[in-house]
Amino acid sequence: MLVISGPSGVGKSTVCKRLLADPRVRFSVSATTRSPRPGEVDGRDYHFVTREWFRERISKGAFIEHAEVYGNMYGTLREPMEAALQRGETFLLEIDVQGALQLLALGEPGIYVFIEPPDFDVLRQRLAGRKTETPEVLERRLKKAEDEWRERFKYNYRVVNDDLERCVAEIRQIAGLDQAAAPRHNV
Ligand code: 5GP
Question: Cα(101) to centroid of ligand 1, in Å?
């Protein structure tokens, strides 16, 4: 299990898309109660579900972790993870910091990678660049990102996303997908 986590706006999904180019890597399709964005496909990007569906699965213990992110529920389903691990695949989770901390607290074996912004100005620019947030929402998100950033020492590895190619190469090496590059910031 390869857990890619970090503050929102840090470039987790771009990093994950690159990691998924490797056929040995399988994406963990999370369930979420948020609506699909243009271009997103149900069952590929997320399982788009209702709050009732989500609550029922929580009560049945179907999630290995779940969290509420900006008013929507997100969760990792246990069953596809167990199937992928049995097949010997690298199961890639792209989840928020709350979710990763839950898995760490449970002692779920895996490689936990925290993606760091090069600095907070860069993160601010990335979040502002989305142009989907009002200044108040942007401030709230930055505050959350700062709080999450303080949790980075709980992870096995921290990788700075200042250069996408290097960041991906470093994670591939950490995950044993590639022995060529040397890690720079492993703890
Ligand atoms: P978005 O709505 O932009 O796709 O995702 C919002 C946040 O939820 C991102 O930080 C993403 O990594 C996180 N996320 C996506 N799936 C899961 C999940 O299954 N569990 C948790 N804890 N976070 C998730």
Answer: 13
Domain borders along the chain are 2-175
Report the alpha-carbon distance of residue 103 to residue 112 in Å, rounded: 9
Radius of gyration of the chain (CA): 16
pLDDT in tens, 12-49: 999 999 999 999 999 999 999 999 999 999 999 999 99
Q: Which CATH class is domain 2-175?
A: alpha beta
The residues, ordered by sequence, that sit 6+ positions from 86 with a Cβ below 8 Å of its Cβ are none
End-to-end CA distance of the chain: 18
Helix/strand/coil (H, E, C) string of 122-179?
Answer: HHHHHHHHCCCCCHHHHHHHHHHHHHHHCCHHHCCEEEECCCHHHHHHHHHHHCCCCC
Answer whether residue 140 shows pLDDT above 70: yes
Residue the block writes with tokens 């529920």 = 73
- Residue identifier of the C-alpha nearest atom 22 of ligand 1: 99
pTM of the model: 0.90
Which atom of ligand 1 lies nearest, measured to the CA of 98? 22
Would you say residue 51 has pLDDT above 50? yes
Round to whole Å and give the CA distance between 3 and 104: 10
Q: Is the CB of 74 under 6 A from ligand 1?
A: yes
